[in-house]
Design a protein that fits this description.
single chain, 592 residues, alpha+beta, seven-stranded mixed beta sheet
């Protein structure tokens, strides 16, 4: 797949934000593995404070987040979503898709290779691809959010021109972010608002979860006694993933700015893996009692664990405590050897700790430990956000291990909604609140450069003559090395020169590659790289090409131009540059 540059028109002139831009509505969506939420704001609403949708279909109570859950009928049509889907009883032929299906199936590697999906996860509904589920859920969520925001703020809501901020895990690569972008556009989160609205796709912004959470937490610096030039780590422990990032506070409140200090990290060790391990434990204990292992019975056990015991479990002090789980089928005979007594499954606390909690909690601790080693400066605070941060056992183990080294270890009062509120706050600021980012990978191009003496010595087989008779060598040209510190929005420019034998030879293809290696490699055979995307550029609109093409020249001609690369926390953008001016700007398309 390729992207053709929007270079068929005159140079792009940057637009300065208007007053209308300052008051534009900003909507954020935290699409979570287990729960999802929506926040919004505008300078014209509630003095610019972020608002959250609290009223949802299926309940008279208020909720800051709702279950990420869909209920399908046997034809693949959505019967219910959110709270209504989660609370729905058994429906003949229906398939319920909830926490264990969504983001973990939608990891980039899972979409590229279905065999890499965790085998413990259930199968998808018939006829549905993984990407279809996220499109369906986002469609339902967005349709309701538009209605609810309009009800809450009335005519002020101009949702057709709103900026929409969508969060993604820190560990996702640019390919995963692009897949999420495509799903969100297919779900209708942004669309053309009027004739001539060619930039409507740009109203969809992708932001990493820890970056959004960091913006929210940095706004609470007074609460945590933090000041400029201090460093904080954000641990966003959610349902599916745990994401980590380290930032330095550069400003306060009215002029808030934070800078990323090291590459982000993340892993699949969120709270749902406690649920999965609990299910495996139950299946092991009741292997000789299959009457308790049907879908409804297992769901009954897991609901009790997930809704009550998971977050309040305390660890070692609960080792001698017995945890009781009511059986759905109470007619089965007792078996004290496995804890099956009087219609209940009884599990000792020390068994839960050893088989369920410790493996997951220890993985989180090791993830935090590895992140602290990436920073050669003092950490002043470790702030835990996300639903899993509500686990008393996890919070206690983090305090025990890192308390002697980090002065402040805390959970904000609204830790479960830090991501969605931070993304909305970022949108309301109308300026980059994160001043610098760290390149998570190396980005490079395969290029053909004039052969140098080193090339003749080391790789003579890669050298050949081009159409102009010049000896060239296939090399790698690094745009940015892994770990490089980049100013947010910084443009990395590279000059290219294309030889055209005839005026019809106007297309230039640039292939962007990534590498996880810290080593700078000159040649294409020195280490593993992955093709990220292609950018097909039509040079026919450039004045120099048009001028040269208009003059017959049997020897051909050269066209010189620049490509610029921009990285932010989640996406990569390309810019065609000619004589210092932008002639085209796109978000790359990515290899699946």
């Amino acid at each position: 797949m390729s992207v053709t540059s929007r270079g068929t028109s005159p140079p792009m002139v940057p637009q300065q934000p208007s007053f209308a831009d300052e008051s534009k509505l900003s909507v954020s969506i935290d699409f979570g593995t287990t729960f999802s939420g929506v926040a919004y704001g505008s300078s014209r609403i509630a003095a610019g404070k972020v608002q959250q949708i609290l009223n949802w279909p299926g309940s008279f109570e208020t909720f800051r987040k709702i279950p990420t859950c869909l209920l399908y009928d046997q034809t693949g049509q959505v019967l219910a979503w959110g709270i209504e889907a989660k609370s729905a009883g058994p429906v003949p032929g229906a398939v319920k898709c909830e926490w264990y299906v969504f983001k973990l199936f939608l990891e980039p590697h899972a979409l590229r290779d279905e065999s890499s999906v965790n085998p413990r996860l259930p199968a998808l509904p018939p006829g549905k691809r993984a990407i279809d589920l996220i499109i369906d859920f986002l469609s339902c969520l967005w349709d309701y959010a538009k209605q609810q925001i309009t009800r809450e703020i009335g005519a002020v809501a101009d949702l057709d021109t709103a900026d929409v901020w969508l969060t993604v895990p820190a560990a996702w690569d640019a390919t995963g972010c692009q897949m999420m972008r495509e799903a969100a556009i297919a779900a209708g989160l942004v669309r053309s608002a009027r004739a001539g609205d060619h930039e409507w796709r740009d109203r969809l912004r992708i932001i990493s979860e820890p970056e959004a959470a960091a913006v929210h937490c940095a706004n609470l610096t007074d609460v945590h006694k933090l000041s400029p030039n201090q460093n904080l780590m954000i641990c966003d422990a959610g349902g599916g993933t745990v994401d980590l990032a380290v930032y330095r506070i550069m400003g306060m409140l009215s002029n808030l700015e934070i800078a990323e200090l090291c590459a982000r990290s993340g892993a699949n060790c969120g709270s749902l893996f406690l649920d999965l391990r609990f299910r495996e434990l139950v299946k092991t204990l009741l292997a000789d009692h299959p009457v308790h292992l049907d879908r409804v019975s297992l769901a009954n056990f897991m609901e009790k664990f997930s809704e009550t015991e998971k977050l309040r479990y305390m660890g070692e002090e609960d080792d001698d405590k017995m945890f009781h789980f009511t059986c759905f089928n109470v007619e089965d005979s007792d078996d004290a050897a496995v804890g099956l007594v009087n219609g209940e499954l009884t599990i000792p606390g020390n068994l839960l700790r050893r088989e369920v909690f410790d493996p997951v909690v220890n993985e989180v601790l090791e993830l935090i430990e590895a992140q602290t080693k990436k920073v050669d400066q003092r950490l002043d605070a470790l702030l835990l956000v996300g639903g899993f941060s509500g686990s008393e056992y996890l919070f206690r183990k983090v305090q025990e291990r890192f308390g002697p080294r980090i002065r402040v270890i805390a959970r904000p009062a609204d830790c479960d909604t830090a991501t969605v509120r931070g993304a909305a706050q970022y949108g309301l600021a109308r300026r980059p609140l994160v001043s610098s980012v760290i390149a998570p990978q190396s980005y490079m191009l395969k290029v053909k450069l004039p052969a140098e003496p080193e090339d003749w010595l080391k790789r003579p087989v890669y050298i050949h003559q081009n159409d102009a008779g010049v000896a060239i060598c296939e090399n790698r040209q690094y745009l940015v090395a892994k770990g490089a510190i980049l100013r947010k929005g910084q443009r990395l420019k590279t000059t290219f020169c294309k030889f055209s034998q005839t005026p019809s030879d106007r297309m230039f293809v640039a292939t962007l590659y990534t590498s996880d290696s810290d080593k700078i490699m000159r040649y294409t055979d020195e280490g593993a790289i992955m093709e990220l995307c292609q950018w097909t550029i039509d040079l026919g609109a450039l004045p120099s090409f048009q001028q040269n093409a208009s003059v017959p020249n049997p020897d051909g001609f050269y066209t010189e131009f620049e490509l610029g690369l921009e990285l932010d926390s989640a996406e990569v953008r390309g810019v065609l540059i000619y004589q210092g001016r932008d002639w085209g700007r796109v978000v790359f398309d990515y290899r699946a």
